[in-house]
Amino acid sequence: MTADENRPRRRPAGAAVLREDITQAIREAVFEELAAVGYARMSIEGIARRAGVGKTAVYRRWRSKLQLVLDVVSAVAVQGLPAPDTGSLEGDLRLLYALTARMLRHPVASQVIPDLQAEAARNPEIAEALQTALRQSQHSVASGIVRAAADRGELRPDYDEDLALDLISGPLYWRGVVARGTMPGGYLDRLAGSVAAGLRAL
Question: What is the rounded CA–CA span in Å between residue 127 and residue 31?
């Protein structure tokens, strides 16, 4: 082995490692900035200021505000919701609704989601990312719930899966995101019972 081969390899210029703590701080700042000013008024400068970094740190990771928001929103879908496993259809639904309702009540989510929905009507890329975050991740968990219920014999073997997923996800999404209505005591229990009964009738 030659002396050149023994010498430590230098990292190529421009290949600096991006610190994960800074990346995470920027992602958190995006949600806070969205909640504070909305997508239309949000700026890279404002995000950087809130994250305590320079604009260059943001641009090293994302080329534009749109790319940054799409990345952050899409990450929500990857994280997803934990799959309930209570041993019964109604129990799984009750746990799913409790977890989802808690997320929707978060001050940041309650402001960010409606704003991004309005922006999605004008921007197909945001619409696609938002659909992934809000619908597909929820449906992945809901699919597991209905399949487990079918395996336990709680649903008919020929149940309509698409209709089942819409029935599970639709009511709480409507109440918490679209209508933004309050949920009185016992509402989630009654919702879980009603949806379970509807699923058994499919």
Answer: 17
Q: Report how far apart, in Å, the C-alpha atoms of 174 and of each of 19, 164, 177, 178, 202 are.
A: 39, 16, 6, 5, 21
pTM of the model: 0.67
13 SS3 class:
coil
Residues 195 and 105 in one domain: yes
| Residue 188: domain span | 76-200
Contact 104, 32 (CB under 8 A): no
103-120 in b/e form (b: 16+ CB < 10 A) is ebeeeebebbbebbeebb
81 within some domain: yes
**Cα–Cα dist 108/9, whole Å:** 45
Task: With respect to residue 71, please indicate whether it lies within any of the assigned structural domains.
Answer: no
Percent of the chain topping pLDDT 70? 84
Amino acid at residue number 167: L
Q: Does the structure show a pLDDT above 90 at 109?
A: no
More confident residue, 69 or 200: 200
Average pLDDT score over residue span 64-79: 76
- Asked if pLDDT for residue 38 goes beyond 80, the answer is yes
The CATH number of whichever domain residue 20 belongs to comes to 1.10.10.60
